[in-house]
Design brief:
- The strands form 4 sheets. Strands 5-4-3-6-10 form a 5-stranded mixed β-sheet. The protein has a 5-stranded mixed β-sheet with strand order 13-12-11-14-15, sandwiched between helices. A 3-stranded antiparallel β-sheet has the order 7-8-9.
- With 427 residues, the protein is of the alpha/beta class.
- It folds into 3 domains: 85 residues, Winged helix-like DNA-binding domain superfamily/Winged helix DNA-binding domain (Arc Repressor Mutant, subunit A), CATH 1.10.10; 127 residues, 2-Layer Sandwich (Nucleotidyltransferase, domain 5), CATH 3.30.420; 151 residues, ATPase, nucleotide binding domain (Nucleotidyltransferase, domain 5, 2-Layer Sandwich), CATH 3.30.420.40.
- α9 crosses α10 and α10 packs across α12.
- Helix content is 39%, strand content 20%.
- The chain contains 13 helices and 15 strands.
- The relative contact order is 0.13.
- A hairpin with a 4-residue loop joins β7 and β8.
- It is globular, with a radius of gyration of 23 Å.
- The structure holds zinc ion.
- Zinc ion binds next to loops.
- Zinc ion (ZN) binds next to loops.
């Protein structure tokens, strides 16, 4: 990795340094080399996911490697500017002083981009999990033209990338969050009902614009990305390991996204299309949904349905509904109660099928949590078979807004963590 590229031309500093050419390796050496790469990733992930700065000795104890091996790997990560040394701790557990290690700030970033029905946004997140720069623009992207939407997104993102390049910060890649289902690995949005998009080659549309001609771009489903950010927030704020996280995540927006996290990993299904709880049927005789079916959950509990039910215009900001609910406005409370019953029915059905005991409410549902919770819990207690003996819980998301955007930037960084070899000098 180099932080000294041609910033004068405002070209983004992108991607890993070329991998050093290696001699013809015999298979045994290749195995040893891949083991070293695996251990390098293991140590980096431990430093990044630790709730607080840690030491070489603690890493060695946690990942089951010798102190000497960990020291060698940490030295490589230091030279690659992926981790940094902080102050010396007074004494480590073995009674010796240990130098604290933390993920590097402002060295490598993942660029998250988000296209939502009512806004577009961009954020650069560094390995320490901090937002380096963030920008958003409101708009109405219902039934939008994909090429025009991409042009607006590029206009929003280009100055951000320019600023990062000026500071010598390396952009590892970009991930675009879309409220829809993607064709895995193809750069194609198969269907985003609320944007009115079908079969859109989104990465191709981005690549014709600078700086995305130089930045690797991938796509992700908004709820999946938000759930990824939530799993990380839960691990860091509560100190429980990522592997201990299992929950059903709901992202309330105009549409309703869902994601399943099992043992810290997304259970995204055979094609990556799981979690479309917004199109769970609540009433087959209900209103027509943008997906083409009738009576989907979105038509009862999506943002538009909540606002309309409260007598508000769908263009009103959500805080109008939140305020009305706090003031005990009867129409607002009736609208939220109807939505909570529909949500509870869909959530209970999902919990019966996928066997998780925790539900996390994100997006607009986090700010309506206190009002939604009783109705959802009543349905869950009534309908989830395991609720008689297991500890079924409905909680608000810990992630503060922008979870899909945060998740998109973290997804890019996760590729660096999974394979850091290209980013560090060889041993
Ligand atoms: Zn639908």
């Amino acid at each position: 990795m180099s932080a000294t590229q041609d910033t004068a031309a405002r070209r983004p500093t992108v991607g890993p340094a070329p991998r050093p050419r290696r001699g013809r390796a015999d298979p045994r050496a290749a195995r040893q080399s891949s083991l070293r790469e695996h251990n390098l990733s293991l140590v980096l992930r431990h430093i990044i996911e630790a709730p607080a700065p840690t030491t070489r000795a603690r890493i060695a104890g946690a990942v089951g490697l010798t102190r000497a091996t960990v020291s060698d790997l940490v030295d490589r990560l230091l030279r690659g500017q992926l981790v940094v040394e902080l102050e010396t701790e007074s004494v480590d557990r073995a009674g010796r002083p240990g130098v604290l290690l933390a993920p590097a700030s402002r060295s490598v970033v993942g660029l998250g981009l988000e296209i939502q029905v009512d806004q577009i946004s961009v954020r650069a997140t560094d390995l320490a999990g901090s937002s380096i720069v963030q920008s958003r623009a409101a708009g109405d992207f219902r039934a939008s033209d994909p090429a025009e939407t991409v042009e607006r997104l590029v206009r929003l993102a280009a100055p951000v990338v320019g600023q990062l390049a000026d500071e010598g910060i390396v952009v590892a890649g970009a991930c675009v969050s879309v409220p829809g289902i993607m064709q895995r690995g193809s750069g194609q949005v198969r269907l985003a009902p609320n944007l009115g998009w079908e079969g859109v080659q989104l990465t191709d549309l981005l690549r014709v614009h600078h700086p995305f001609d130089l930045i690797p771009v991938e796509l992700g489903n908004d709820a999946d990305l938000a759930a990824r950010a939530e799993a990380r927030a839960r691990a860091q704020l509560r100190g429980t390991s990522r592997a201990a996280q299992s929950f059903l995540y709901l992202a309330g927006e105009v549409g309703i996204g869902g994601a399943i996290v099992l043992d810290g990993e997304l259970a995204s299904g055979q094609h990556g299309w799981s979690g479309e709880i917004g199109h769970a049927v609540i009433d087959p005789d209900g209103p027509r949904c943008r997906c083409g079916a009738t009576g989907c959950l979105e038509q009862f509990a999506g943002k538009d349905a909540l606002l309309r039910g409260a007598g508000l215009d769908v263009a009103e900001p959500l805080r109008r509904l939140v305020t009305a609910a706090h003031m005990r406005d009867p129409r607002a409370l009736r609208s939220i109660e109807a939505a909570s019953t529909a949500l509870g029915m869909a959530i209970a059905t999902a919990m019966n099928i996928i066997d998780v005991e925790q539900v996390v409410l994100g997006g607009i549902y986090a700010s309506l949590y206190e009002h939604l919770r009783p109705g959802i819990e009543a349905q869950v207690r009534l309908r989830v078979l395991a609720a008689r003996w297991s500890d079924v819980r409905v909680e608000a998301a810990l992630g503060q807004g922008d979870s899909a955007l945060v998740g998109a930037s973290l997804q890019v960084l996760d590729r660096v963590v999974t394979d850091p070899t290209d980013w560090v000098p060889s041993s």
